[in-house]
Amino acid sequence: MMTRKPLTNTISLASLGLCLGASINAQAQGFVEDTEIDVTARNYFIGRDFLDSSVERDKAQEWTQSLILNIESGYTPGPVGFGVDIISGAAVKLDGGSGTYGTGLLPVEDAGTNPHPAGSYGRFGAAVKAKVAESVLKVGEMMPALPILRADDGRSLPQTFQGGMVTSHDFGGLMLTAGQFRQNSPRDSDSMDDMSYDGGMSDHFNFVGGEYTFNRQRTTIGLWGAELKDVYEQQYVQVAHAQPLAEDVALTANVGYFVGDEDGRARAGDLDNDTYSGLFGLEFGSSTFYLGLQKVSGGTGWMRVNGTSGGSLANDSFNNSYDNAGERSWQLRHDFNFAALGLPGLTMMNRYISGDDIDTASGSDGKEWGRETELAYTVQTGSLKNLNIKWRNSSFRSEVNTRDLDENRIILNYPLSIGS
Questions:
Q1: Beta bridge partners of 45
Q2: SS3 content of the chain, % helix, strand, coil (to 5)
Q3: Rounded Cα–Cα distance for residues 380 and 77 (Å)
Q4: pTM value?
Q5: pLDDT at position 14, please?
Q6: Which of 102, 141, 295, 384 sits 20 to 30 Å CA-CA off 77?
Q7: What is the pLDDT of residues 169-192, one digit of tens each?
């Protein structure tokens, strides 16, 4: 149910979709009343300085302006309700040349001979959906947010997948889901292609999972199974809990365990991975303190489809997930909300992550570390209300790759809800 089009057609196709949607809406109560239309204007700058002498260039720097359109319709009346979702986006290069490509904000063209960032790119995708009671079947292009498959929305345009999934909330606090994705469009691509892990390609990602929330919604238990057919299989169990201790004081914990190995024809070779992850927090007034602990065991690193986010791991960060084979890592993090000081909308995050015991080709134990700061502000009133501005500053050093870098990012997101 998805059609790929060049950037020059993206806006016109999105407009056509809106017009067609308006025509259908006029004929179906519920379909139009519950429709949500959101447009996000995103301005994104990344400046990255490479410090490793083995890297042929000393920087990667790009700047883009993008528009992202999301339309989620309501459902037609009747025992089976039908609807349509649309996701569309267009990004334009504002700055960036052949010597500064590779931030992930734009596709890289002529990678083998003269690599340089594309001047623009865009996407248009749609999905149809059907709803019975509290169960929804969706087929087409979408952004899954599953612990075993998280679409990455960390650059100009979000990553999307093509396939189908069914999700049920018919059983109280129990959520059940299953599905299959056939192709993948990473965040810096304008095409739909097969998925991969460590060089192994596949056009089938199958999954099933469920989460049960109880204890006045303070506790969630999840169990998931996934298969990138003929590449890897993976299981995941998770427990998340929030425990209030007093007014404005609470303890939080998010603990997970992944186990995986090769699947079928083993197109990425023999695989063996166990990954343990725990993020523990103390909320105290305007501050939240976190301790992240993570351990990767087995002969291979943590498994995920190419381009996806590592957000299921405790120590995932802006530039690294600390998920190499054998790696043991820890994190200290502090979040602060300035609202208590009379500055609502202003927040700051600081964290330090250290990893060691990384398996290397020479047999030695490699090390790496990262330091990151994020200062963010959301405009509270006026014509620019909800404009979110972020400045991210980070450093990363590693003994096991050539990614030593210092980096700055400036991100402006201006969301506008058109209607509902």
A1: 63, 410
A2: 5, 55, 35
A3: 37
A4: 0.90
A5: 42
A6: 141
A7: 999 999 999 999 999 999 999 999
Q: Are strands 135-142 and 346-359 parallel, antiparallel or unpaired?
A: unpaired
Under DSSP, the state recorded for 107 is P
- Residue 408: how many other CB atoms lie within 10 Å: 14
Residues 6+ apart with CB under 8 A from 383: none
**Backbone φ/ψ region at 262: left (φ over 0), alpha (ψ -120 to 50), beta:** beta
Location of structure tokens 């096991």 = 400
Q: For residue 81, give the DSSP letter.
A: E
Identify the pLDDT of residue 254: 98
- Burial code (b: 16+ CB inside 10 Å, e: under 16) for 9-46 equals ebeebbeebbeebeebbeebebbbeebebebbebbbbb
Q: Which amino acid is at 303?
A: M
pLDDT 10s digits, 103-135: 999 999 988 888 999 999 999 999 999 999 999
Examine the pLDDT at 401 and tell me if it is beyond 50: yes
pLDDT digits 0-9 by tens, 299-330: 999 999 999 999 999 999 999 999 999 999 99
Concatenated DSSP letters of 207-239 = EEEEEEEETTTTEEEEEEEEEETTTEEEEEEEE
Question: What 8-state DSSP symbol labels residue 341?
Answer: G
Query: What is the C-alpha to C-alpha distance for residues 168 and 326, in angstroms, rounded to an integer?
Result: 37
The answer to whether residues 41 and 418 touch, using CB atoms and an 8 Å cutoff, is no
CA–CA gap between residue 345 and residue 337 (Å, rounded): 8
Query: Domains in the chain and their CATH numbers?
Result: 36-416 (2.40.160.10)
